[in-house]
Amino acid sequence: MEPEPPAQIPQRGMQYKMNDSLIVSLKNIVVDFDGEKVLNGLSLDIHDKEFVTFLGPSGCGKTTTLRVIAGFITPQSGNVLFDGKDITGLPPYKRQVNTVFQKYALFPHLNVFENVAFGLRLKKMPEEQLRPKVLEMLEIVGLKGFERRSIHQLSGGQQQRVAIARSLVNQPRVLLLDEPLGALDLKLRKEMQLELKRLQREMNITFVYVTHDQEEALTMSDTVVVMNKGNIQQIGSPQDIYNEPQNAFIANFIGDSNIVEGIMLKDFLVSFCGHDFSCVDRGFGVNEPVQVVVRPEDVAIVPPSTGMLTGLVKEVIFKGVHFEMHVDVEGKEWLIHSTQASQPGEIIGMNIGPDEIHIMSREGV
Ligand SMILES: Nc1ncnc2c1ncn2[C@@H]1O[C@H](COP(=O)(O)OP(=O)(O)O)[C@@H](O)[C@H]1O
Ligand SMILES: [Mg+2]
User: Fold this and answer.
1) Which fold has domain 257-361?
2) For 235-259, what is each residue's pLDDT tens digit?
C-alpha cells in the first residue's frame, strides 16, 4: 500500500512571533586562539525581541560567540552587524549590548542600590533621574526593599537578580546572558528560568542566552542554536530541535533517543529492524542509507501479534511518572518510556507512527 503523504510538511521557523527585523547578524565569524579555531566561520541572524539560546557542550564556543557580540573579542575574520550596520571594530561600551556573566562580578564594597546604579553614574545621570530608574529595576527583579543591603548579605539567587538589574538599567537592546543560572540549585534555577522569561517579555528586548542544559534551552527559548566544536549544528524552535534533530549529535545531546540504521526505500517509506514504516520524510535518494531516530516516549507497546516490531524486555525502571524499559530488538537495545509496565523477560509488540519517525541523513553525522 502506498503510504499517504503528510497533510503538511513542517516548516522551520513558523513559530516566530517576534518582530521580523534583524538586530544582530554574525557573518562568517572566525576566532582562533593560539592557532586553534574556536569559531569556524559562524553565521547567525538574531531577530529583534527574540529569545535565542546557544546550546552545546562545554568548550564548543558559546562564550566566545557572546564575547564577539559584546565586542570583547575581535574576530580574525568575519563581521558583526547591529541594525544592519557593521560594528565589528566598535568597542563594547559603544554597543547597545550588556552582558550578565555566570559569576555575578558584583562590587562587594557597594550596596545593592549602588551596584545597580553603577552604569548610570558612569554616564553621569543626575540623581533625580537615576534614583527612580534604579528603584524601578529593583522592583522588576523582585528586590524591592533590598536597596541598602550589602552584597554579602544576599543569597546566590538574589545576587544574580542584582546582576541582571545592573545590566537592564542601562536599557540595552540586547542582553547577553552567559549561563546565568549555573551556580544556583535546581529549584531556584527553575524559578529563575520563569522569571527571566517574564523579564524578557516585560522589557521587550532581545535575550541571547547561553546554556549547556538542554531542558533549560527548550523551555525558555523562541529559537535554539545548537553548537558543537565551533560550528552551528542546527537552528530552530525548541519543537524543531526536539522533534527534527538534523544529526545524531543533536539527537543525542537533546535527549535519550533510539538511533538505528535504516534504508529510505522511497519518499515516505523507510525500512529498519526488518520492517517497512510509513514516515513523513521525503527528498532522500531511493534506497539511501539513513539514520532513524525514535524517541523513547514515541514507541507504543501493543500485544506481540499486532506489533510492527517485537522485543524482549530486559529491564524495567520506575521513574516516578513513567517506566523506563530496556528492550532488546534483534540484538539492539531500545529505550522505551511508558506509563504501563511490562515485566523483564516478557515479549512485547512495538508500534511507531509515521509522525514519530525522524530521518537523518548519514552524512550529517
Ligand atoms: N582566551 C582564550 N585563550 C585560549 N583559548 C581559549 C580562550 N577562551 C576560550 N578558549 C578555548 O576556546 C574553546 C571555546 O571556549 P568557550 O567559548 O569558552 O566555550 P563554551 O562557552 O561553549 O564552554 C575552548 O576550547 C576554550 O578552551
Ligand atoms: Mg562558556
Assistant:
1) OB fold (Dihydrolipoamide Acetyltransferase, E2P) (2.40.50)
2) 999 888 988 889 888 988 887 788 8
Ligand 1 geometric centre to CA of 65 (Å):
10
Instruction: Tell me which residue has its CA closest to atom 3 in ligand 1.
Output: 33
Q: Which ligand is nearest to the CA of 73?
A: 1
Structure confidence by residue, pLDDT tens digits, 320-339? 888 999 999 999 999 999 99
Q: From the alpha carbon of 66, which atom of ligand 1 is closest?
A: 17
How much is the pTM? 0.76
Q: Where are the strands (E) in the chain, listed by range?
A: 22-33, 36-47, 51-55, 77-82, 85-86, 97-100, 174-178, 206-211, 223-228, 231-236, 258-266, 269-272, 275-278, 288-294, 300-302, 309-318, 323-329, 332-338, 347-351, 358-361
CATH topology for 6-96+172-251 is Rossmann fold (3.40.50)
- The domains of the chain are located at 6-96+172-251, 257-361
Q: Which protein residue has the closest C-alpha to ligand 1 atom 17?
A: 61
